[in-house]
Amino acid sequence: MDLTLRINRNTGLKGLTFWGQWALAQGFVVSLLFILALQHTGAVEFYYRVCAALTVLASVPAYTFSGVYRKRDSYLTGLGRLFIGWSITMAALACMAFICKADALFSRQVILSWAVYGFLGQALLYAPLHGFSKYYQRSRKSAHRTLIVGTGELALGLAKKLSLENLPLVGLVSTGVAAQLTPDVPRIVGEQKDLLELITTHDIRRLYITLPLSEAAKIEAMYVDLLGANVDVVWVPDLNSLTLLNHSVRVVDGLPAIYLNESPLTSQPTAALSKSLLEKSVALLAIILLSPALALIALAVKFNSPGPVFFKQDRHGWNGKVIQVWKFRSMRVHDDLEVKQASRNDSRITPVGRFIRRTSLDELPQLFNVLQGHMALVGPRPHAIAHNNYYSGKILAYMARHRIKPGITGLAQINGCRGETDTIDKMQKRVEIDLKYINNWSLWLDLKILVKTPFTLLSKDIY
């Protein structure tokens, strides 16, 4: 669990950085399109103006999905994200032109030149803006000479995090608690009673307080003393005993609020909408392209053993709502009263079923679950309700997996957590990875998981 709460990702300087660079980039590409159209036809026709407007609109989800203009990226990584975002935008425009049969209106020379020079121009704009952003961050960090009040585990963890971010940490201030210091952590520069003197002596600009909630009175008294010290005071509450989920800090009507447990789908509604629209579009396209394969698998299942083509099972979905998950039937029809996981050499599995399970082709009908809005392409895999009831009382925060839509694939699956979970430890590991996915969810992470999934389909643990 993070030692410090992260600030809401949709607010603050990060948002300004994205929208500022995005506005400059879109201003450039729109101007370039108009100049090229003017040179070619002598006028900026109406359809070129429509193309410019659609470009601006399409670039918002495309650039958000690709993670363009992230401050922590290196220059080359940033260019890679920019290329992906611009390529998605161009692909979206091409699809719209094809669907509307408007491609004949545009000059191929103009559009190809615009696509190439549009990216190159954005790349040239990105270089100074990226450099300025990095310089601004470094200058801000160098001005924040810092002290940490406390010497406990939280203080030491915070010190390491500040050191990784190259913040000028002067040292720790003892509060009377015995410190367990090692050579790789900052020195203790003094005691709490000398705090005001230490701030003046070391020209401290920021002070982190890492005292626990049990010392609230001491924290309040310290804060009152520091009001006239011209120093930024940051309280880092000790929440290490809690299992946090997608946590953040925000302001609600002027009051600071710590969100300990929140679904990413409610904390980032715009990104969640982009995820839903993108996944439904991909699912629909996949169903169309894979329809011959789906028909062949259905026939093979039907003729291999008597029974229905599809296996439908009630499972928990988003926020614990019960949904029906579809799969191609891979087992013989049986009357087991107990829900039992498939195991290696399971006698219930048919010959065709063994093949489609081994290649994960039995999961393809879940594309229809994605279209219905019950599932996502990427998310924690849904388990049978009986298994959820069993593990929820044995694994901490087990049901927190359902704070996001279940997926056809997920972070746990590409990390080798597939097949039978015949021990508590195996399920515990899967849950830990699922919670890690929820805490770090982004459209960019979803894309990486989708790209990696095909390379894990022949895992020896699938049966």
UniProtKB/TrEMBL annotation:
Family the UniProt entry places it in: Belongs to the bacterial sugar transferase family.
GO MF assignments: undecaprenyl-phosphate glucose phosphotransferase activity
Enzyme Commission code: 2.7.8.31
Annotated ranges, domain Bacterial sugar transferase: 275-458
One protein family per Pfam: Bac_transf
Protein name according to UniProt: Undecaprenyl-phosphate glucose phosphotransferase
Gene Ontology cellular component terms for the protein in this record: membrane
Domain of life, per lineage: Bacteria
Listed transmembrane segments: 21-40, 46-66, 78-99, 111-132, 282-301
Protein's organism: Pseudomonas karstica
Keywords of the record: Membrane, Transferase, Transmembrane, Transmembrane helix
Membrane-protein topology: Multi-pass membrane protein
PANTHER family named among the record's database cross-references: COLANIC BIOSYNTHESIS UDP-GLUCOSE LIPID CARRIER TRANSFERASE (PTHR30576), UNDECAPRENYL-PHOSPHATE N-ACETYLGALACTOSAMINYL 1-PHOSPHATE TRANSFERASE-RELATED (PTHR30576:SF0)
